[in-house]
Design goal:
This protein is mainly beta. It has three helices and twelve strands. Helix content is 11%, strand content 39%. The protein starts with 7 loop residues before the first strand and ends in a 7-residue tail after the last helix.
């Protein structure tokens, strides 16, 4: 389980296999404190560490993960956000993030002023029912508050700190992003379905 407050940063170092089965990620983490089998959210995708080097770690990518996330678009040098899972007793900021990407969106607008940057995204139609003004959303693993919603578009604002310390500050128009909607919204939608019966 994650919070969407990323605590590491890096980039894609090596891509191996015809279908990107193995990816090595350069990181600013102290890799001596990472163990094989650890879970790390990589731009919002929960992945398992399979190999560790001094300044990098490797992960294996399933076909399902490849097809449902932006990993299919990663290239050598692609920037990646990292977050280690929270532990019992850790301060809980952000919101509940599972690391299970719901869909891929794209950047439609970037507007900057002296105080913040407004980022607008187009989301898959099936996700819009989970996206609400003042609700929470994870974009490439970063917990954000939704400011505007219109049809299949929504926008967020990021402060300079977020821009400088995550991949969001490097986004350009048409870039693809991983979207994970609020987990609580998914459960509420399930409970509200007419065909759902409580035992």
């Amino acid at each position: 389980m994650f919070t969407g407050l990323t605590n590491g940063f890096g980039n894609v170092k090596v891509i191996r296999g015809t279908d990107r089965q193995h990816i090595e990620l350069q990181t600013n983490y102290d890799t001596s404190k990472i163990s094989i089998g650890d879970s790390i959210a990589c731009s919002g995708v929960c992945l398992t560490v399979t190999k560790i080097n001094k300044y990098s770690f490797s992960v294996d990518i399933s076909l399902e993960t490849l097809l449902k996330t932006t990993i299919q678009f990663w290239r050598i040098g692609t920037p990646v956000n990292f977050e280690k899972p929270i532990r019992m007793g850790d301060e809980f900021g952000g919101h509940i993030v599972a690391g299970h990407v719901d869909g891929v969106g794209s950047v439609t607008e970037i507007i900057s002023d002296n105080r913040s940057i407004k980022l607008s995204f187009q989301a898959p139609d099936e996700l819009m029912k989970f996206i609400a003004i003042k609700g929470s959303i994870s974009i490439d693993g970063v917990s954000l508050t939704i400011n505007e919603v219109s049809k299949n578009l929504f926008s967020v604002n990021i402060i300079p700190f977020t821009s400088n310390n995550t991949t969001l500050g490097k986004l350009r128009i048409s870039d693809k992003v991983n979207i994970e909607v609020d987990l609580l919204a998914r459960y509420i939608e399930r409970l509200m379905k007419k065909d759902y019966k409580l035992c």
